[in-house]
UniProtKB/TrEMBL annotation:
InterPro entries: Aldolase_TIM, NanE, RibuloseP-bd_barrel
Lineage start: Bacteria, Bacillati, Bacillota, Bacilli, Bacillales
Family: Belongs to the NanE family.
Superkingdom in the source lineage: Bacteria
UniProt KW Isomerase keyword: yes
Protein name: Putative N-acetylmannosamine-6-phosphate 2-epimerase
Pathway the protein contributes to: Amino-sugar metabolism; N-acetylneuraminate degradation; D-fructose 6-phosphate from N-acetylneuraminate: step 3/5
Organism from which the protein derives: Paenibacillus sediminis
GO molecular function terms attached to this record: N-acylglucosamine-6-phosphate 2-epimerase activity
Enzyme Commission numbers on file: 5.1.3.9
Role this protein plays: Converts N-acetylmannosamine-6-phosphate (ManNAc-6-P) to N-acetylglucosamine-6-phosphate (GlcNAc-6-P).
Transmembrane segments: none
Pfam families, per database record: NanE (PF04131)
Amino acid sequence: MKDCKLGIDHLVQTAILHKEVTGLEMKPTFDQPIFERIYKGLIVSCQALEDEPLYGAEVMAKMAKSAELGGAVGIRANSVMDIKAIKQVTRLPIIGIIKKDYDDSEVYITPTLKEVKELMEVGVDFIALDATRRPRPHGEQLESLVAYMKEKGQKMMADISTLEEAKYAASIGVDCISTTLSGYTSYSPQHQEPDFALVQEAAGELNIPVLAEGRIHMPSQAAQMLILGAHAVVVGSAITRPQLITERYAQEIKHTLLKNKLKSQTS
Ligand SMILES: CC(=O)N[C@H](C=O)[C@@H](O)[C@H](O)[C@H](O)COP(=O)(O)O
């Protein structure tokens, strides 16, 4: 009941905000209620790999609960173990992935049918998968994975790194795309900043929802993505990876103090 109220509150707030920002009435343009639930909201990616201090399902479930309390409208999570634990503590929509390295491919986000099936078994609202055109392990094909999920009625999110990949993913029938891999393929722009241009272009050209994801470190950047046309925004490290948050503080402090010292020496 509380979850339901939270969802309705979010939709009402979103509609008000949308009108204030754009001057337009927000119309529910998507048939699927799941897309309304996440519209113009913040999705928090709760992930820690085995070599990270916060690794473990119990910790990830606490992260997800904290995200929900803070106003997140969805959770992105990696592995069956984490997803199971997260589902025990929240009813927010879940974008599930399985990160797995195979020797014969660079693709590691839900690379093969095996991971797709594991995610379908645990049950997630969206399966996110690498939707670049790079070769997949064992010669598996993106098109067959998409067709399989469509046939089973499983919603999916295509993680892409360029506009061309976004357009191709849309053309083969994915439900939505996310800019997750911009900066993480050799041929996409290697920015330190989030890829604002890609989000704006993809949102302008595609008629499926486009989510902004990747290196969004500040609340203002998340809001900017939504104004540029993102359907929702996914933030991970800046909320759930304390070692990286600390690193950014430490570097900024070092850098600023050094700059200051040099300035005072030359003046
Ligand atoms: C490239 C890649 O493997 N991205 C992964 C995808 O699931 C995660 O490690 C990121 O944390 C997630 O995309 C959110 O991005 P950021 O942590 O920058 O807010």
